[in-house]
Amino acid sequence: AMAPGKTANAFITRVFTIMAFGLGITGLVSWLFATKYLGTMQDAAIFFGGPMRWVVMLAPLAFVLVLSFGIQRLSYPVATAIFIAYAAVMGVSLSSIFFIYSIGTIFQVFLMASVTFGLMALVGATTKVDLTKFGSILMFALIGLIVVSLLNWIFQSSMLDFIISGVGVLIFAGL
Fold it and tell me: Fewest CB atoms within 10 Å of the CB: 22, 46, 73, 93?
């Protein structure tokens, strides 16, 4: 039998692999939908301005609810199919970003998020320290961040906005 640490690392590696696969599906579907189906800003405005916008906005939530509440009752193939469908619908939902931002900006953000995710996965998989004890502290920090964000919404300080962004990255990386 495997040692508990190796089993946990194998599980986390599998979860991260599945998440990377899902993110790849989302990115590919988003790009294909924007370039092959919509094509122009006018087509995007019609699609996202009509009744389909509600379907595109609410469908990912429906998938999350089905997976969250039904995960114990779903077979592995059904849960996998729902996850792939969720990733694809998220791609359709996010396809509008190709009409707002340049491909270079989108790639840069994707690369930064991927590197951060990969580094945090590496830290989590290789550290010998039990990181779960930081969860409650980080949740309180997140509540504080939300309160400060709401206050900054009123006061609109660009320096505080910068600080909130940095602290937010650290809190969410920790969580």
Answer: 73
